[in-house]
Amino acid sequence: MNKPLISVEKLSVNYITDTGSVKAVNNVSFEINSGEIFGLVGESGSGKSTVVQAMMRILPPPALISNGSVKINNRDILSVVDSEVLGFRWKEISIVMQSALNALNPVLSVREQICDVLKTHKGLLGTLAHNRAKELLSLVDIDRDRLNSYPHQLSGGMKQRIVIAIALAIMPPIIIMDEPTTALDVIVEREILAKIIELRKKLGFTILFITHDLNLLLDFADRLAIMKDGKILELDNVKNIQKGGRHPYTKKLIDSIPSASGARQKGLFSKPESLDFPDMPILEVQNLNKIFQSSELFKKDKLIAVNDVSFKVSQGEIVGLVGESGSGKSTIAKLVTRLIRPTSGTIYLNGENKKVSESRNVPLEYRKIVQMVFQDPFGSLNSIHTVYHHLARPLLRHRLKSENELFLYIVHLLETVGLSPGEKFAEKFPHEMSGGERQRVAIARALSLEPQIIVADEPTSMLDVSIRMDILEIFAKMRKENNLTVLFITHDLASARYLADRIIVLKDGSIIEEGASEDLIQSPIQKYTKQLVRAASPGWFHSLYKNSDNKESKNDR
Amino acid sequence: MSKSISYLIRRLGFYLVAAFAALTLNFIIPRMMPGDPASIIFARFRGKLKPEAIEAMRQSFGLTNDPLLVQYWSYLKGILGGNLGTSIAYFPEPVADIISSGLFWTIFLAGSSLIVAFSIGTLLGVFIAWNRTGRLDTLLPPTLAFLGAFPYFWLAMLSLYIFGFSLNWFPLGHAYGNEVTPGPNLSFILSVIYHATLPAFTMIFVSLGGWMLSMRNTMISTLGADYITFANAKGISSRLIMLRYAARNAILPNLTGFGMALGFILSGALLTEIIFSYPGQGYLLLQAVKSQDFPLMQGIFMTITFAVLAANWLVDIAILIFDPRTRK
Amino acid sequence: MKNKIQHSSIVTRWFAGIISNKKALAGSCIILFFVFIAIIGPFLIQSPTDFLGTPLSPPSFKHLFGTNGQGQDVFSQTISGARQTLFVGFSAGILVVLIGALIGGIAGYYGGQTDDILSLIINIFLVMPGLPLMVILASWLPPGPGTLLGVLVLTGWAWNARVIRSQMMTFRNRDFVSAAIISGEKNIRIIVVEIMPRMLSLLASSFIGASIYAIGAQVGLEFLGLGDISTVTWGTNLYWASNDLALLTESWWTFVPTGLSIAIVSFALTLINFGIDEVTNPRLISERLWRNKVPRNMITNGITPVLKKHE
Q: What domains can you pick out in chain A, each with its CATH number?
């Protein structure tokens, strides 16, 4: 029986903060065998990144490893002297860090950042190093011209590939991949993962893969561990976990991810009895255009963010606006809520032309009708004000309630969005609440004016997976009970499938396709829509396992 | 057009506007004073100056009876043609000549002190931020901060007192000794260095803390970046990370700050010159103030402004070299 | 009603946080001490302007800091000098921050063409060297604290305006501002109620930085002889010391006490700024705590330390 490649035993890591010592990793043990793909799953704050960074001892202060051993090829990196630690790094174990967008030094070229590893570990200089660098780039399908590029000239997908190439440079036996694709668009993400799997088949290294997306790992990992609050709750091979695992948290994680393909799961969200919508739309957008100009001295950079977009939304309907980054969906959100003015185009509310292109001033009535929920629960609440202040201000501004009625109404609002007891939450400051609680407050704020339309701009993409469905259910409930209209903006096709009645697909500022959610998912017409549906579906890799020619995608600019 | 060139031209455009603003300010100030500037001059200087001098000053300001715009235009033509008027204190010498005689010394003293202080301060900041455990990090920042709290010229007085008058280690003033002849000969150069030592040291001491602290601050925030963690993970040498990864990024905001601080630092240099009777612009400024020599004062203002603007443009070029993000 | 209670406690909370920091506390105490002396001191000492003793006599019991070139008591001069210098210095500080907040805030919040114009003005004032401009202005205007104040503010406002503009732009792009706009809040209210309270630390350290600058520049101008040399301020003290050939006559006591006072005040102000820095950036504090907890020999840059148990 082979000894495991990596053996982590009773690892504990503390963070020293001004409020005391926080245990980020608590007594974690696992083993990784040579040649396998081992997954580490957890939500934010679970400690998964801390574990792997501790394994290489690259945790910055104020981290302190308080216990445990990490044996790589039988040598414990935690007990050797500091000078020997460098001997492990990159030779025995390397890492592809989370958001490679920041992993590259902005002032050095790609070539310099590949060659310094080659020089340090293999003593390669000059042409030898240069040639090896070119080889590495071609391994990840990057043109060798890019050697002289700087990070700011590269797209997210390219930067990620280059970081993978650097990680492979000395061919270590094991590579840690820490959320390597989280910040990327879903199509690019799948391509990169396919490339990783292909490389692994070719070169045979072991992978420790970290992600918050359990679904992803169920596709291609061999074994995985699930972490929460610094502890490992479940550790098993993938087949057993797919069946539901042993720990209730595992089941909860599996259940919170709807599928973007296959048969439709029933009962995920509340639905009204009838889905008959009135003919007259409550919101109509016609020929909306937004062009951003950046003025340099001689060259004017034009960015066409929204290109001739027109659509209608009926009262009581939930419409999903689906697209990747750069598709224009957030810009449309800002245009509909009139945070910015369109370059041209019209918006009709309840049949009335709101003259959005002409006037700068937005009448108060518009604000009462159209409200917004933002993506980042940390940024959309002002840290210096209480929940009460956040909810009271709009009501006072619109003179909807007098001072006496405020408190009761606010408490009722908070209960509606699931924050109970309302009185307790009203007194809290944002930093005293979790991300999910803050987002509920943001929704309560948007609902306080009893608007007819809510624009929700990626309301759950920064939240933990396990609570996303609960938050989206609030929108479904409000629609069912109060006939609220929701413009649901997201990059996640799966949640749009279940929450939205209709989906509009955006790419590069234009509408690609539009249709009833289930129809769009089951039978997409346009090529891009098909790509999106495929990328969001499980089992995507199996088709790639058979298909071994992958060229540099047109999506990498 | 390449991004770098367009950037440099844009910056040059800004400096031209700023220079223009300074020229206009110079023009407007005497005319904004309560009362008619000509009478003010007359009243202040009557009896103290020869009538020719008062007339010359009038000319320097372009205080004729022509409409304002005509005055402005002839003023601009004059300045751009190098005519800065006639000095009062050194009447009848033209201001331009007086200034050019002192310009070299100021640039020499202030320039060399600035470069030395910036280099040493920045390097110290790098080391201190890197080795934050060292005793150096606990002692140096507060000590240098304290030194930096003293006015430039006061520290100059103190050091002149201690090292000049009391200990007699250094000369008491001037750019070079009386016994040497100016020119490219060794004894002259040595004398210049000897005379410049004390004033330069003073300026370096006072400004060192500022450079060190700001570099230290930017280093500390740079060291928290992801690419530093990744560089660590790569197992490359500590020195390489400190210099090529951390310092090269941390220095960029300091370069920007350098340009902006130039004007401020130059002011301190001018005052230091006065203490050491160093024959630069500072010394001239003092004489100008003593004799209410407005043409000279304004000439110095224009010269220093142009010098600072030019230096700022050089810093912009440096940033272009150091930061690839400003290029294509 | 509840809102008003929250408001005063934002400022009090912030203030309490600052005072709890050791550096800020130490600096504040020193400043308060000097302010106290500046206000009360002149009533308790002998006249600084009377010619009391032999000129240029070294410190003695009769004259704690000795006498200057005119035979005036240096101790009294140092104490009296504090008043105008500190008053003009702090007043300039407040004015500079007010102007900076107004111009920088408007430029940063409204953006667009407003920002283009205001930024240009800010940058022009920023890049022009201060001292020569101050000298010209101060020479034309009658000498005195009013002139000094005006001249200091004119040359000093740009730096803070730029910094405040920068922060305002950062906040302007945050979602909580967008949310307030979508709720229908008026811009002025957003600036004053939502954004400014979050800039308290920046405004405070701007005030302190501006005061440091104002005190130093003021002293410099007076040293050149541009202040009202008949008044007693720290700057004019140094002017007279230099004029009366303090160095040549080796009368160090005529300029050292004043210089030290200026330095101590500036240093105390810097200390307060360090304290504010630490409070707004708690990472600095947690790093210090970490450094105290981990034995020095276990800290190597770039390698996470491991707490070793007994082997």
A: 34-46+86-255 (3.40.50.300), 283-523 (3.40.50.300)
Average pLDDT over residues A155-172: 90
- B233 backbone dihedrals φ, ψ, rounded to 5°: -60, -30
CB contact under 8 A, C248 and B165: yes
**Predicted confidence (pLDDT) per residue in C86-100, tens digit:** 999 999 999 999 999
Report how far apart, in Å, the C-alpha atoms of A254 and of each of A48, A251, A274, A542, C299 are: 18, 5, 30, 20, 42
CB-based contact, B213 to chain C, within 8 Å? no
Contact B195, B175 (CB under 8 A): yes
Beta carbons of B270 and C137 less than 8 Å apart: no
Q: Hey, of B230, B245, B321, which one would you mutate to test binding to chain A, going by the most A CBs within 10 A of its CB?
A: B230
Give me the pLDDT at residue A557, please. 35
Nearest CB to B267 within list C123, C124, C130: C130
DSSP states along A372-432: EE-S-TTTSS-TTS-HHHHHHHHHHHTT-S-HHHHHHHHHHHHHHTT-SSHHHHHT--GGG
User: Tokens 């997908």 map to which residue?
Assistant: A157
Which CATH number covers residue C198?
1.10.3720.10
**Quick one: which H or E segment has residue B305?**
helix B294-322
Q: DSSP letter at B92?
A: T
What is the ipTM for the molecules in this complex?
A: 0.85
Interface-testing mutation among A8, A82, A338, with chain C (most C C-beta atoms within 10 A): A82
Task: Provide the residue range defining the domain that includes C101.
Answer: 2-307
Report whether pLDDT(A548) > 50.
Answer: no
Residue of C nearest to B154 (CA): C259
Query: Across the interface, do C6 and A389 touch by the CB < 8 Å criterion?
Result: yes
Asked if C247 lies within 8 A of B262 by C-beta distance, the reply is no
Number of domains chain C is built from: 1
Q: Is the omega angle on the peptide bond into residue B34 within 30 degrees of 0, that is, cis?
A: no
- pLDDT tier at A552, thresholds 50, 70, 90: very low
**Nearby residues of B61 by Cβ (< 8 Å), 6 or more positions away:** B30, B37, B41, B85, B294, B295
Nearest-by-Cβ selection for C132 from B148, B154, B300 = B300
Rounded to an integer, the average pLDDT of A155-174 is 90
Lowest-confidence segment of A7-16, A325-334, C237-246 by average pLDDT: C237-246
Distance CA B75, CA B61 (A): 8
Chain mean position to CA B315? 13
- Considering only CB atoms, which chain C residues are within 8 Å of A376? 175
**Integer Rg of chain A from CA:** 26
Q: What is the pLDDT of residues A177-218, one digit of tens each?
A: 998 887 788 888 888 888 888 898 888 899 999 988 888 888
The number of residues making up chain B comes to 328
SS (H, E, C) A260-281: CCCCCCCCCCCCCCCCCCCCCE
